[in-house]
Design brief:
Helix 12 links the parallel strand 11 and strand 12. The chain is an alpha/beta fold. It has a 7-stranded mixed β-sheet with strand order 10-9-8-11-12-19-20, sandwiched between helices. The chain has a 4-stranded mixed β-sheet with strand order 1-6-7-23.
């Protein structure tokens, strides 16, 4: 019986959305390219960066999205004949618009439609010869394989490892060899033979020039990412994507709540997509108070150019609600002829959009399509499994935990209680605790009591007695709202008071470090996907609700253009105020009114806890409640993997269908 887990930075197993190591490699690439862009901008240079990916362009595509690259070459989607001219024209248009640098990402397996390799040096020579750009080449090579693993890779590897053991334990003589994968945010078991055959078909399809088949063997999100990247990567003043005048809209974007990684990335993607289609984008500065005061400006291409890697909120954000100034909000929206609204933020943004929707009968200015893009480190917005900023914050926690554990290990006899954010949601504590090797975690969902503390202290004492003189440092993660009585300081004090002298306890409060820093690549990619889908959704809802009256029946002063007053968008349908969410691997729009019954407003969290399956692993892996000498465990691990058959894989990748068991 063989059960495999795929560790591949190329993310090239066809039957899984993510392989172990891919996210860490993407992080190395983004760190390198972010640094390269600084020197490129200073010297107005062009850079050609080669990344790994012999038969799979996942790394190159996601790196291009995450760094704002101007052009991309991947093996699954070779450029059309004459790509040299197309590339030069595209990069020149961006330079003519005022951009100071150019960035091209090339996968090592990139080819043209005759399977002739496209090399980084060749691209450099074309840019230097035809455009006269000062161009440099950087081949990242094995840098992509090194460094500390990213949070998501640690989390994925841990969950898949547990499921691999479960698969072995429940196997029978007739069970085929399996591979552990991940599809639609669910751990899966798949027949190893068929998974390998599917992967081999990608290379075969490329070699036979069947590029559509090669793309079809990738996940649906891969093709969607590629399409959206092509649409927003470059400035296209004469683009074929320009819409007729009567379909062009005025879309406002506002940030609300605490800052979170990915807010600016989402805004940049939305602005660039809208401009290329002919829409006007209005940036609302300083949240809803700024909207009340009329702090609104039109966003252009260059304004948002560097926002991909920018943390925080460039527009400005706060927790204030429309509240008693609802009339002022309606006035400004009507004054600026806002026809669609995108709100980027956390639970405060959720309640704000809900409030605007509830006041549509009183204020017609709110009778427009509205969408909330969830962005909060707490990951507590109903209607989505992932909010922008949560992965960035988890990476901050894991990196901090690594450094704190190093200090604790040097001392040999020290435990750190680390306080993390999350409000009343334990998502950060649980996922970062699992990734960072926490001994245990304290969350609001479970609470803290003396019985729990006694159990954890007994475990710590037993371990430090057994490891006397060669003990490792240990950490415990504590959510900021885990208990109203047992604070982080108190837990550490109890730990030390009951230690019997075998260990000491210290505290560390990470605080607002978790809301800052450069957004993680995963958050950047999710921000791009959510923003593009949100613009498409707003467009469709606006066009459905568009009323263009007969201009001959409207009397206006002769010096005013009638076009200024059209089109008119009006809708009070509940489904036109929605939350965009990532549910599994599917992007879903849920009417915000439908989410009210699924929301605990007092605690500011959704009622469903989708990530609770990962909580049980923390205690098991750290040995809490486990009889290491004789075997046995107080808490039994409950497998959460979805078992897929060969027929299931054929339905997914051969017929491009969906599986009910993954929904």
């Amino acid at each position: 019986m063989i059960v495999g887990m795929v560790g591949s930075i190329d993310n090239d197993l066809a039957s899984t959305d993510m392989t172990i190591g891919a996210c860490s490699a993407l992080e190395r690439i983004c760190e390198s390219v972010d640094a390269i862009l600084s020197t490129a901008t200073s010297h107005q240079r062009a850079f050609v960066v080669e990344v790994m990916g012999r038969h799979c362009g996942w790394l190159a595509l996601n790196a291009a999205i995450s760094t704002g690259a101007d052009y991309l070459f991947i093996p699954e989607a070779p450029p059309k004949n004459g790509w040299e001219d197309a590339m030069c024209a595209t990069l020149k248009a961006s330079r003519d618009a005022g951009k100071r640098t150019s960035l091209v990402i090339v996968a090592e397996g990139a080819v043209d439609r005759q399977l002739r390799p496209i090399r980084a040096n060749e691209v450099r020579d074309i840019l230097a010869t035809r455009l006269g750009y000062d161009t440099r080449v950087t081949i990242l090579g094995h840098v992509q394989r090194g460094g500390a693993p990213a949070h998501f890779d640690r989390f994925l590897g841990t969950m898949q490892g547990a499921e691999a053991v479960e698969a072995i334990l429940r196997a029978t003589p007739s069970t085929p060899s399996l591979v552990i994968g991940m599809l639609e945010n669910k751990i899966t078991t798949q027949p190893l033979k068929e998974a390998i055959e599917l992967t081999g078909q990608v290379a075969q399809a490329i070699e036979s020039l069947n590029f559509d088949r090669a793309m079809g063997l990738r996940s649906a999100s891969f093709a969607k990412q590629l399409t959206s990247y092509k649409e927003i990567a470059n400035f296209n003043p004469d683009s074929k994507m320009k819409l007729p005048n009567e379909q062009r809209l005025r879309i406002a974007i506002v940030h609300a709540g605490a800052p979170a990684g990915g807010m600016n990335t989402a805004t940049r993607s939305a602005v660039r997509l809208c401009i290329n289609r002919g829409h006007t984008v209005l940036g609302v500065h300083n949240g809803f108070p700024g909207l009340m005061r009329g702090e609104i400006s039109e966003l252009d291409w260059l304004t948002v150019d560097g926002w991909t890697i920018a943390g925080g909120s460039r527009l400005g954000t706060n927790r204030d609600q429309p509240g008693l100034q609802m009339g002022a909000v309606a006035y400004q929206m009507q004054k600026h002829n806002v026809q669609a609204l995108m709100v980027v933020g956390g639970f405060e943004a959720f309640t704000a959009v809900l409030e605007l929707g509830r006041n549509r009968t009183q204020y017609p200015a709110f009778c427009i399509p509205m969408v909330l893009v969830p962005a909060t480190v707490s990951n507590n917005v109903p209607g989505t499994e992932f909010s922008l900023g949560a992965d960035t914050a988890a990476n901050v926690i894991v990196r901090s935990t690594d450094m704190i554990k190093q200090s604790a290990s040097s001392n040999r006899r020290r435990v750190f209680v680390i306080e993390v954010q999350g409000g009343n949601c334990g998502f950060l504590a649980v996922t970062a605790g699992l990734s960072g090797g926490s001994t245990t975690v304290y969350t609001p969902e479970e609470g803290v009591d003396l019985t729990r503390l006694q159990r954890d202290i007994a475990h710590l004492r037993a371990r430090y007695i057994k490891e006397l003189g060669r003990s490792e440092g240990r950490v415990t993660l504590c959510n900021e709202n885990a208990s109203k009585i047992y604070s982080t300081e108190m837990i550490a004090s109890i730990y030390e008071a009951e230690s019997g002298g075998f260990y000491g306890a210290r505290t560390s409060v990470l605080g607002h470090l978790q809301q800052g820093g450069t957004p993680s690549p995963l958050d950047r990619c999710r921000a791009n996907t959510m923003a593009v889908d949100s613009v498409n959704w707003l467009q469709a809802r606006c066009w459905d609700a568009m009323h263009i009256p007969n201009e001959n029946n409207v009397r206006l002063p002769s010096d005013q253009l009638k076009r200024k007053y059209f089109p008119c968008v009006y809708t009070d349908a509940p489904q036109t105020a929605a939350v965009i969410g990532v549910v599994g691997s599917e992007v879903r729009f849920t009417p915000i009114s439908d989410l009210v019954v699924h929301t605990d407003f007092a605690r500011r969290v959704p009622r469903t806890i989708w990530w609770e399956a990962s909580r049980q692993l923390i205690d098991i892996l750290s040995g809490v409640g486990v009889d290491i000498e004789n075997g046995g465990c107080v808490s039994e691990y409950k497998s959460c993997a979805v078992d897929l058959t060969a027929d299931d894989l054929m339905r997914l990748y051969g017929q491009h269908g969906r599986l009910a068991k993954l929904s």
